[in-house]
Fold each of these.
Amino acid sequence: MASAPVQLSVRNIHKAFAGRGAEVRVLDGLSFDIHEQDFVSIIGPSGCGKTTIFNIIAGLIEPDAGSLVYRGEDIASLRGRVGYMMQKDLLFPWRTVLGNVLLGLEMRGVAHRDAVERAREHLAAFGLAGFENAYPKTLSGGMRQRVALIRTLIMDPGILLLDEPFSALDYQTRLYLEGLLKQAVETFHKTVVLVTHDIDEAVALSKRVVVLSGRPARVKTVHDIEIAESSPIAARSDRRFAGYFRTLCGELDIQTEAKPPETKQPEAIAS
Amino acid sequence: MTLIAAEKSAALQQPRAASRKRSLFDTMIGRGLLQAGAVAVLLLLWQFGVRIGWVSEFLFGSPSGVFVVFLRMAANGQLLSDTAYTLFEAILGFVIGTISGSVAGLALWYSIFVARLVEPFIVAINSVPKIALAPIIILWFGTGLVSKVALAVSLTALVALIAAYQAAKDADTDLQALLISMGATKHQIFWKAVVPSTIPPIIATFRINIGFGLVGAVVGEFISSQRGLGHLIYNASSFYDLNTVWVGLFVLMLVGFALYYVIDAVERLLIPWKVSGTVHQVQV
């Protein structure tokens, strides 16, 4: 993995937001590399700025300082070239399943007929054939997030940014979607950056795990996960799984002592 | 939408036992019978009161008198032509006012600068009771159709504008962020995220505005006109012809009632994704 070339390099990013009175430094010189066809999980205490990094990479907000280098080229952001998936499925309620999947292609100006054909193929591949004309409201949470995943993948993005995409789902559905994601990523040779507060998920899915310190966020450590099993369920029964899990828990624990616990934190550790 | 919300809260408030053991009258036919019965009792009391002299026929008319006038005016075609005239004014005013107001309100989304600039003016204009404009509007637009439509437009346009602008501001920012990450232009965000999400609140204003359209038409006719239900009511009341006044009011009510259900149908047609969801309503 270390031998794979660097695809995206996040260099010395600073970002502060205006808070009550003083400004809040969220990112203070954050740097890390994402390799080609990498699967990196970013874990860290709640509110440490994980989503902020994603928003900067996706071009939703601008950093105060620092740079992004994509395949050797200095860029302002990866806007239009990332697949951003969030905890909320963000399906457009007035669009059918097919219409939602088509969204990104419309943005790019792909001819409607080609776009529909591609969308139907993707929907069929993910077991959603027959649901093309259903409105999101009629689907289960797992199905909705599957549609969101298809919508992300169909754009063939350079990098997938997944911000706790499965955390609102029940455990079985989550396992199923993790497997689906892992398969899709391998089939389409995608690079994934996953933000999660679920250490278990991070270990089961990733090739590398980046541990961030509390606010302002800095990279504390980076762990290579050497579990060869590709299925997330099989990975969880690998004999090294527990070791990684314990190490990462330990590293996060140190962070939790540094500041008063927030509401989300206990569940992050418990899972 | 308002109806659905009301049904929902009613369903929630209903005690458990009552919903399990439904009364014989709590069916479509049962409720209809009760409602018709209530109206019949009221009319009979009114008629009886007139007959024995407790209610003044001169000031209140009588159900039988109203019925006779109704039949006569329906037969000679006057009722139909007056109704059609008023309905036309109201709908034209409603359509022009609602569309121009909604478009202007949505357009304000494009520029926060312009929106902030015009906001105090909109609030100021909106705080004038629009009916107070009626005399000037008659002066400007004459006594014919145009003045009534103009009055209806003045009543509906700002309601639509404010609602549309508010809805555009309230449009889900996460959906917009998603589109930005996909590389969307401002134009695309407007058409794909903002406009569709404003459709339900804008349609909700239809219900209010269709009523205002009727108000504009009728008040315009009160002030100066040769035709229409407002003309009919105003004229008849100046002759103390209460039975004819009741006919006019009754037909206005029917018109308003019908328009409400037309809007309901329009809503179903325009936002199927919203209506289809109400199947899974909470039943306590």
Amino acid sequence: MDKVTDILVEYTDALLQGKPVSKDVEPELAAEFRPLWETVEFLHGVLRPAPVPAELAQRLENRLAAEWRERQEKPASIPQALRQALEQLISRALSDEGFRARLIEDPEQAARGLGLTLTPYELAALRTMDTNQLASLIQDLDERISKTSLGPTDLSGLLDLMER
Amino acid sequence: MMERLEQDNHYAASAPAASLWEKLGEKIEEAPGEPALNLWAILGAKVDFAKYKPKRISNYELTEGKTAQGQVYYMLKNPAAGTYLQLGAQELFLWNMMDGEHSVKDMSIAFLLKYGALPIDLIINMLAALQNKAFLERRPVNLYQKTAQTLARRALQSKGKLYLTALKVMAVILKAFFWMLGGNIVTLRKIDKFVGALYRRGGKLLFHPVAQVAYILLIVLGLATLFMPAGAQGGVTVGFSTIAFIYLGLLAIILVHEGVHALTCKHYRREVKEAGLSFYLGTLVAFVDTTDMWMEPDRRHRMAVSWAGPYSNLILGAACSLGIFLSPWPQVDVVLTSLATVNFLLVFTNLNPLLEWDGYYMLMDYLEIPCLRRRSLNFVRKQLWGKLKARASFNREEKIFTVFGLLAGLWTVIVLVMFALFLPQRIMGWSNALFGLLDKIFSYF
């Protein structure tokens, strides 16, 4: 039972903090982007066939739920490793228009071109980029100049009237 | 020459063993705990856009508004520069990060985490707009563009003074032409305090519900009497005094029209930036700048400021019409008929949305599309034919841009052609009228 608890806590911490974990589990970390129930399902799947005590499952579920809510309410923090990879990619994308297009089209290929091998976790983050949703609302504004033409005050017209 | 060499030798003899640069180099090497000075790294960091830390100005105003479709937007104002910009929620997120501490890279990552999108084009466009409108401190200078401009200017100068003089004369002529299209003649910049005082000392009564009812009654009565025979009968001789009254009446109409724009702006607690005399497409105009109404979130209030001018002309026209019906004096009828005609003409002129008169601002506010005219003309010029060729579908804005852009473009061309054709005739008319009026004044006395 203690071993099961240790494994669960270790993987849960790894999952929540983005710490490196063993290779065979790492791809599944992309599950962090999935809803909570999928994450819990994943944990259950890892531990199968060992039975998960109901109390422990509940505690884990509560902890994950709290973490999930917190992430929904404030901008999420990201693991240091991902931050470094993102920083490199974004720095290049900011200064190189061609690279920017390639990054949006194929993040994996673009990153490889920079000598970066992205983990599935990082790739999943980059693939969620939806460039189309950035409909810019920034808008220059007209000067609002109310005008009255002085055309009707043309003296020539008035003098014509006077001549009559 | 010998003297100079001796002097150099003297300095060389008295110089210390190590040169200044060597000493500085040693100092840098010896500096405890300091990293070696890497000039290229520092320069690299300075010009790296990703490391640029934009800092917003400290003195700005921000208001929140919502379109009829429920989309939230923000109006940004720089009170010192008198500039305005509209932002969306995503741009506001970036604006809030522009504190001089976060780099463009930091902002991109934070944005990616919040919105799941890489905002590079958004940031580039936003920074350009913010710089143009003076919303950033330490505005970066486009060194390469400035250098290119300086080189171009020098190249031009080297081709000879005659060539340069000819270009300068052409520039002056073009400048005068464009000034005639939209340059200011007289600008009163501190008008806001005056209008504020006027509003507090009685101007606000114009907005009282009782006054509103009186306007409607006056309009109804005035329009009803428009088609009735005048009160006074018999012929009339138009003299200098009649002309003087008409002229004073016309000036009063203009003052009232612009005055109510300004007072309505004050009614909504916004600033009247300036007023004065100007040219607009070759026509002499009196103007009031109510750009600050952009900070007013309710579009009906913005429309009310634009509507106030033509509405005042409708009221005054109706009052003149009622006066003609009631007046027993033919001389008064001549004055009132002229003033009524001008008032009704001004209502229609100002409500025409195809040029930037009051009707244009009302239409723009109603449609909630800032810069409607500029964007429509741009759309017609750059995108319309491509979309028609490709038989692509048009969204709401594109449909509006097409209809408005085509009509506004056509109307502007007509006005400009008329301006160019009749300008010499008009100048002659003005000078003849001026001399004629002086002649009449002298003969009157």
Amino acid sequence: MIGVGNAGVGILDRLIVETPGISGLMIINNDHESLGASIVREKISLPEGDPRDGFLMIEEEFSKSIEGSLSILLCGGLGGGTTSLLIPLLAARAKTMGIVTLGCVSLPFGFEGKQKKELAHASLKKLQGVCDAVAVIENDRLTGSDPTKSTVGSAFQISDELLLSSMKAIQGMIATAGPVKITRHDLATVLGKAATLHFGHGRSEGANRLHEALERALHSPLMKEKGGRSVIGDARMILLLLRGPNDLSFAEMQVAVEDIERMAGKGCVVKVGVDTTAEATAGLEVFIMAASDRSELSLERKSPEEVARDASPATTVSIRTKKETSAKSKPTTPAAKSTATYNQTQGMFELNPYQRGRFDKSEPTIFDGEDLDVPTFLRRGIKLVFPPK
Amino acid sequence: MASDQIFVGLEIGTTKICVIVSEGRSDGTISILGVGETPSRGVRKGEIVDLSTVSECIHEALIDAEEKTNVEIRNVWVAISGSHLKSFNNRGTFMLPEDRDVIVEEDLQTVETNAKEVSLPAQHIFLHTILQGYHVDGRRDVIDPIRMECRTLEADFHIVHGIKTRIHNTLRCIESLKLGIEDVVLSSLASAQVVVTQHQKDLGALVIDIGGGTTDFLVYYNGSVRHSGVLPLGGDHITNDISIGLRLPMQRSEILKIQEGSAIDPKGDDLGMITLKNDLGFLGCDISRASLQIIIHQRVREIFEFVRKDIEGSHEGMLGMLRAGVMITGGSSRLRGIATVAEDVFELPTHLTRAKEVGGATQTFENPQFSTAIGLTKYAMAVSDNIPEESVFAKVTKGIGGIFHRRSR
């Protein structure tokens, strides 16, 4: 997994803290302080200046470090200059080496400004053209799920959490070594048509590890449905990955599957993957990815296609899968539908471009073309001293 | 004038609704008997968006006031604000008819009506007509023209108008509580009654009342009101900025603003960190003090810059002539460093003020949040129908600088 830019570095740092024993992480950044402060061992330092030039300089180093990998996952926050320009280049390079390349990125909040948004979208487009699959987290949709209760502070928290969980889950799914694999096909099916994706991750050790890990996975922040309905109950398809040392018993696996199936509604497809290649001392990890059609805001039941097309403003992940490996060719049909979906998502999105916090619901105060409810320091591009928290 | 009369002022603000009950003394001062107050819900940026909720809040505030003062409240004087309010100066002219040489009271009415012969924007009605001065046959700034001999009477007024429905909404809200409305007063004018002395008005002064949802301002020059305005920006915007910038919930931001906030621009200095403790549903964290101040400074500065732009847009060069400087009042005026920013933006000496020349409960008038409501009662006393015998002259010298006229429905 490769973290790009300040956001990417931050995510990987957290991943290490939360999943000790995780390996295969690398960070790339041109902010040397952030590189120095990070606990990730493998680092590539991008020189200052235009990231495109910088890329040429680190290209070889990068290629060497990912050589031999079956797949890589690039993650970062789009919108910032470095990340947005660099990630597509890294992805392209990996693809030419025949490595399965996945992306997990976030789009900036509307209030962060038009420039950031445009840069992010341009970058995303390129990325989607190159990668096998890209998970996108649209920060602005975070407040959509429960507008009366979400605050700005929690929105940022959820954004970070979501990025992290998605990372863990996708990596978990893709990297299954066996004996029971979740195929990429399964993954693509789930990701391709889902209206809402929920990720859960839990880990435990000891005698009762299965139940505990499962419990924790189900209680992950993103598995909680607002309004009290169960995520699992509504899911159309669930991917379950158990990962542990090779003393993972058949019984444990069976129990896990039964539990989930019991909770899932009728007609829900459950796919299980088991990975027993973890170290003997590692605990048991449970990854859940649940795809549901139910948008958190709309109350009528629609077909998955309809819901995806309507671009529900619910939880924020939309995934596109590309079967082609060449960067420029047109996507095939399933991906094309997703493209259309994605674009329409974009369209609806524009209606509420700015995060105005408390003034979200009130008439905007426009003076001289500026929306005065958006914080002054943001509109004037004044930088704060530290990134908060 | 009738001594010891009771006046009740009602202010419906974005943050709080308050009722001030005052007693007018025969020496012209007022003494505050008590305050009724509730947090305001249903008001955004100075305007009522939820009639029933606001009615309830007003009711609570009234009960509160009645309990504390043992006064039964029947009629109130109401402060009106809102960004829809606009103002302009106009002159009315009246030529005395052939058969008369001497000015009578009705002529004053006539000249005012003439001044209002202006087409207002659609949906607008006159809210307040504030007298600036009379001119008699070209002789300027006559204080009391009644019984003077002349041919032509002119008068300058500062006229405030606003959207009819919004003004009426406020009134309807109050009337639904079976309260009589003595009259409506422009918020900034009310605040100015107790925050600026006549002397300062003569020297020229800018009064800025920064509340939760709006910033109301008034410019005095040569003793009379020359300019007024309302911005839909206030303390809430500062809190919101903090909330977004530091990623904190609103309530936390509000507390942070009050306890630690300062509008001074750190200018690159590292001011250390503030530690926020754990709370329900909120993890503790460290906040850079410099960041907090940058956020506050930018917003406060912008608000003042808007005020400045507004004044200079209508009266170029007047700011430089306000020798008494700037008076800041209102809840948000308690923010540390706000006077410094104002001085920087306006290039005038700035004072933080609260109600002056009032007696009674000390904490009340020392709190700048209540300036408007207290001012209402002072205004009420001065223009109340209990002073009909006194001439316009007396009214003006009491420091009002304006003749009160009933608003037209």
